[in-house]
Every structure is written in C-alpha cells, then in structure tokens.
Known about the structure:
Layout: H1 2-21, H2 36-50, H3 54-67, H4 72-84, H5 88-98, H6 106-119, H7 123-136, H8 141-153, H9 157-170, H10 175-187, H11 191-204, H12 209-223, E1 226-228, E2 235-237, H13 251-263, H14 274-292, H15 301-315, H16 319-326, H17 335-341, H18 343-355
Antiparallel strand pairs: 1-2
Amino acid sequence: MRSQVAAAFIAILLLALTAAGQKLKPPKLVPTPSTESQEQLIREGIELHDKGDYDGAINRYEEVLRESPSNVQALYEMSFSYYAKKDYQKSIDVGYRAAQFKSDLLEAVYVQLGTCFDDQGNPQKAVETYKAGLKLARSSSLLEYNLAVTYLHTRQLEDARAAVKKAAALDPNHASSHLLLSTLFDKGSYKIPSLLAAWRFLILEPASQRAEVVLELINKLMQAGVSPGKDGNNIRLILETGQKKDEGDFRSIDLFMGLMRAANYAEKNKDKSEMQLLVANFNSLFSILSESTTKADRSKFTWKYYVPYFVEMKQQGHTEAFIYYVNQRGTIAGVDEWLKQHPNKVADFLAWSRSYRWPQVD
C-alpha cells in the first residue's frame, strides 16, 4: 500500500515538474483549415461535450487530429473537454500544442491554460500564462479578468483591482468584471466605487441568481452609516472614516447618501412607497455626482469610467427605469408591475445604455 501511495505521489510530482518546465513561446506555426468532414466531427464533439460526454467528444477530436495534427480548433476543443473532466494536466498538454499556432483561438487557449494552472493549484504559473497571453493580445478583457481572479485567489487585492479595471474598460459589457470589481472595491473599503460597479453589473445581469447577492451587497452599503436614534424618532448618522481615497475622494457623496437615507424617515415622506423614495434618492445622488465632477480628480478610474455613465443616465431621464430594472430580483413590492406597465421606458433606457460611448481608460 505504501509503495502505491509513493508511486502516485511521484507521478503527481513529475506532472507538476513537467508543467513547470514548459514555457510558452510566441506562436510560429500556421494551422491547417478543417475539411468539411473534420468540421462535422468537431461539431459532433461539441454536441457531446455539451451533453457531458467528454470522452466521446475527445474521441471525435482525436479522429480529426489523426488526419490533421495542425487543426487548432480540434486541439482547443480537446483541451476544453479534458478541463471539463478535471484532467488538468492533459488539458495543459493539449493546450500547449494549440498555443504553437497563430490563430483567432490563441486568446482562448491562453485563458484555458491559465485556468487549468489555477485550478491545479499553481497560481504563479497561471499568472505567468495570462501575462504571456497579454503580450500577444494586449486588448484581451478575458485574460485581464482571469488574471484578476487568480490574484484574488492569492489575496493580491491591489493587483486584482488593477487587472479587473482593465478588463472592465476593455469590455464594458462583461458583467462578471463589474461584479468582481464591486467585490474588490468592497473588500478594500471603497464604498461608492463598489456601489457604482454593482449597479453597472445589475444593468447587464438584473435577473440572475448573482443579482440577488449583489442587491444584498448594495443594501448593506446603502444602509451603512445610518441607524435609528434611541427614541425611534431621531436618526443617527455615522461618517465612515476608513474609506480610501486613491479612487477619488467620495466623502461628501457618502455624507450626502447618509443624509438622503435619513430624510426618508421624515414626515413628508411617510406616504411614499419604497420605490418612489429610491427614484427620488437616486435622482438627487446622480445630481450631486454631476456637481462634484468639476472638483474631482478625473484621472481616477471611478470618476473617469463609472461616474459619467450614471450622470448622463440621469440627464437623459432614465433614472426611474434604471431603478426598477435593477431591482428585478429584489423584494420590493411593485417592481414587476411597473416593468410590465412601462416597457417603452425600459426599452429606451436599455437602448441608451447600449449606445453609450465608454471612455478610453489607461
């Protein structure tokens, strides 16, 4: 029994050393295009993969590669199927073969390899792989995003924030980048930047299970700094002093949010619904953001990237549609009814959002 354990340990060690010794080099080979019959085999492999028959899929790809060892699509799909089987080493070995070829799949190959190394428990090699990929594809949001995920796993939060900012800037419609950035901002005590990133995520993905988690984070951040007084008639404001400023100084915005939340308890607002209060609150908040931009350091990512989007949203009259749209997975009454009654407002808001021109961010 001991000899079997020792042999297994040695095998794992050899695989790890093999992976560590492999080095990705810029691709020099030209892949061979698929024939019609090979395309059919690859389609069959993808269908089998999607059904969970990874071995069946791999058999189809092997059949293609016996005819054409330079078929980069078959190599990539095979690597993907091995990854789905959690056979990370075989996925890496096939991925290294695919990485030798110049192709449109090169970015995906490097993402696949880095993910394998990360899941294999080798984050250093994953980072090395993503960075190597970024030398070949400098505008790859997916490589930046996956690099950020690996940095998060190793608790390198500043490096993770820097990478996912680039990912969000390169692809403003990648919901997961905004979600990760909101999470990282929250971990780093950046309250307002975390909220802005969370709201952008909800615009892109308002109805998923992840949206419920994000709404909980938003509620936590929005409620922070406001608590009922001793007699229940007074509201106590607590100014949070630990917030960092390298994303910009948001202290006045945070104070305003506290005052705004406190004002919701005023007598004049007692007959307003929660959604009516939210719409009014956000119109005021976005107005304050607009007024603050003249004093802000516009070189900071949050002020340059997120703030102008929400300011223009308010200026275009889409605040109400925004509030209802992002609360689809929330618990506030009346949201579904409003969305059904105002499809044109929602459509106009989404059309504006899709056409918004995001700034170039270094």
